[in-house]
Every structure is written in structure tokens, then in C-alpha cells.
Amino acid sequence: MLCKKNEQLESRNFVDGVNFTKDDPCIFVVYPAGAAGDLLISIIDKHYLRTGCEYYGIADNGRVHMFTTDYEKLDLDNDNENFVEWADCQFDQQFFWDLAENLSKRQLNYSLLDQVIFGCHMWEDKQIEYILKTFPKAKVIRIYSKDDAGLDLISSLKNIKLGGGSSSNKKSHITLSNSLRVLEIPFGALFNETNYLKYYDKIIKFLNLNGRLICFDYVQYYLTRQDLTTAKLLEEYSQTL
Q1: How many other CB atoms are found less than 10 A from the CB of residue 132?
Q2: pTM score, whole prediction
Q3: Per-block average pLDDT, block size 10, for the chain (241 residues)?
Q4: Distance, first Cα to last Cα, the chain
Q5: Rounded CA gap, 133 and 138, in Å?
Q6: Fewer CB in 10 Å around end: N or C, the chain?
């Protein structure tokens, strides 16, 4: 990690009762299920000293096993037709209590973190607007499908890694591109080196990071964990972006 020494994050400097609130800085990585969001989160996480995230490698089916700061509490179903009504209470006080308790179970609390990272499937405009409204210091990175070919690949990856289930076959209506707190990344951009470096630089600028840290070799390893057909399709699709 490219970070300065920060003794405040050492366990001996634990401060009891310091909990994350909606007014604290945080990062949301939002994406359709199957869009390799965990891969991106695992890259971003390495730029911070301690986020409460946990990385457990890449499974035989190509799935990145990555737990975010909240330990994936925000595992939302984008096909839920009642999302707007349900979301009204999603970030209530209970959510923040649960987050604090979850960190405590792992011998952590907010005083020992230098960043909070959430990853979830709240990728639609109305959902992102809700995040921005609730968390005034949040920055959102959205992975979206640029075309039908991307949608098909996302659906295929979801079926391989998550065992099927309902898939979102709708394109995202990108209307938040002008927001200074939202960065849009097209699905597939990470899978060839030229695009990877291009969008990595955008992320670095967006999050005020010190520079690149994870080389493209990591993505190449990710591709080797996919079946041969899927890896080839991802590489070929990335060339079209």
C-alpha cells in the first residue's frame, strides 16, 4: 500500500465508542450481480492501511471472495420491485448499530479504520441518489453495462459464480455522470491492460490515491481462474470498449 505511517490505526490506540456515522467519508462500489465488483473492491482495498475488508482469494469458479467493511450486510436484490419503500429504512439507526457490532466481533471499531468500503448491487440511478443523499461524504464507483453484449456476459458470470437465479437484463440509465461524487466504469474495462491502466488512473484521481499499486498481473490471474471460454470472451469484449 502507498500510505504514510499512521500510528492512530494501531490496535493499542483503540478508542471505545467511536462508531461510523452517515456523516463520515466512505466508498461505495456498486454493480450488477456478476459484474466483477469484488475484483475492483479487492484492488481499491489495498490502497488503505485498514478498512475492515477481508480478502480470501479467487475460487475455482472464478469468484473473488471479498468481504467489505460491513461484511456484505448490504447484499441487496436489485430485482425487488419494492426497493424504494424498503430502502427508506435501509440506512436507519439499526444499520449503523449492526455495522459497529459486526466490527466489534472482529476486534475492530471505526477508530481503527482509515477507510470504510461498501460493495453492493445498488447500481441503479435511484439507488445511487439515495446513497448520495444519505451519506454526504460518500464517493460512489459504479460498474455499468455499456451494451447488450456486456449484459449477456454479466448474466453468464452471475450464473457461473452465484448459481443462477434472476438476472437484471436492463441497461443502466446513466444520468449521474456529471456528479463529482460518482465515477462510472464500464463493465469489462479491467480485462485488457490498456483499459485497466486508463480506468485505474481515473480511480486514483477520483479517490485521491497516491498512485497505482496493483499491476495487471493480478487481473491476468483472475482471468486464469475463469473457464477458458469465459476468459476469452472477457478479453475480447474488453477490446471493444
Answers
A1: 17
A2: 0.90
A3: 80 85 97 95 97 95 94 59 50 91 92 95 90 96 94 93 61 66 96 97 97 97 96 96 91
A4: 29
A5: 9
A6: N
For the chain, domains (ranges, CATH) are: 21-238 (3.40.50)
Q: What is the DSSP string of 14-68?
A: --TT----TTS-EEEEE--TTS-HHHHHHHHHTTSS--S-EEEEE-TTS-EEEE-
- Measure the CA–CA gap between 234 and 241, rounded to whole angstroms: 11
Helix pair angle (228-238, 217-224), 10° resolution:
140
Are 62 and 230 spatial neighbours (Cβ–Cβ below 8 Å)? yes
Give the pLDDT score at 81: 44
